[in-house]
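Table S2 (text version). Query chain:
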Amino acid sequence: MLVRIPSASLHGIEAYQVEVEVDISPGLPAFVIVGLPDAAVRESKERVRAALRNCGFDFPAKKIIINLAPASRKKEGSSFDLPVALGLLAFLGVVNSENLNRFLFVGELTLEGSLKSVRGALPFSLLAAEKKLSGLILPRKNEREACLVRNLPVFGMDHLLEVVKLLNGEADIKPASYSLADLIGEVKSDVDFSEVRGQQQAKRALEVAAAGGHNILLIGPPGSGKTMLARRLPTILPEMIFEEIIEVTQIYSAAGLLGNRAAISQRPFRAPHHTITDTGLVGGGNFPRPGEVSLAHRGVLFMDEFPEFGRQALESLRQPLEDGQVTISRVASSLTFPCSFMLVAAMNPCSDVFFGSGLGVNCTEIERRKYYSRLSRPLLDRIDIQIEVPAVKYQDIVGRPPGESSAEIKKRVSAARKIQLERFKGKRILSNSQLSSRDLGQFCRVEAEGQKLLETAMKRFQFSARAYDRILKVGRTIADLAGQQNLSASALGEAVQYRLLDIF
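Corresponding structure-token output:
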């Protein structure tokens, strides 16, 4: 007897359909799983055997062969327990086999038959909707996440016996029903820009970075507030649209990092330690998983003590920063993870600095250049804004009233982003930071005074052609914040000030 049950597995953050074929024939008792299973898949034999026995079913004393098709792709995880068990129950006549082809089945079984959560519920739900199946049957803990796909019936189950009753029509089990508001929830933040004392120039630079999606480097002594500023950047970024929520949630679902959340509705903020490897940063492994750059998709990647990161890890950032995606190649296949994020890097003026108010405090020119040499020029060229964050003065700590709130700054940022979306309608450009050299001539028209200022700056500071392009992009964002059509001398002057390391 041959039974086929639709299931799925993950390839990166995407799901692909796997046909679980169960063949039971006379012969010496055997239980074999084929189709390139990993250790977790092979061990499902014992989980399924114990679950069926503890649910009161007889285990077939026959030759059982389980094939996971397509056999050419490696399978991982424990999500095949449920479809394998249902295939055996169909042979025993316990389950109506005609209903098995209507649904997509995923789930891990405990030894007593309960269903445990699995990774990738949202990708599985997207696949079931794409294949136009009648629904998705999975563990109840994954139910809310799967319900983000609005046009698909989702059945969250607690136990194998519940699935049997559903397939046999013995119980009136309705698909899960949640409103979008219940799934996404209200976005709340525990931090606010009003808590930052002083640092007006740095706050302005972060506002410009947020408005144009620019990468930013903060340079200042310890205790100047670099980390504090970076952690508040997501609070002034525009709200995520539903498509962005799906993108980010899919990544976290595939990585198994959703926890009890149904969706990621707040822009991610990732802050890896400087000891992280290049694999941990950009993704990889035997079964490639998303790295920190992908987990920061549509959000912020904060890298404190920037020069302390390994050289290989830093250089691995170049492609993600340029392309907004990272490709991981293996012998058999390659995977592409999305990673459109804002990089916020922070560093000290040199390797040995503790007190002072300026960039050069306790740092000789030789020490400073040696410290900066840990960062390659191609990497620095991909950072649009480089700004000094001086030590906070006593008067700013005790005497200055609270500054603007994140909500007030966010209004200006959102207005600037709206201008950009209208300007780039019909193009695959979402913000000024994504402008190509060809686009600059069309969208960055410079006024006469601005042309003179740029010419002077290029001659005085010996800016490269790439730096020139970055100045135009940042100038375009500053002009958008001011509601200006063309790039004025004041907008370009501010943009030039943000090329700190080039000026140095």
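Notes on Table S2: The first helix runs from residue 39 to 42. The first strand starts at residue 2 and ends at 11.
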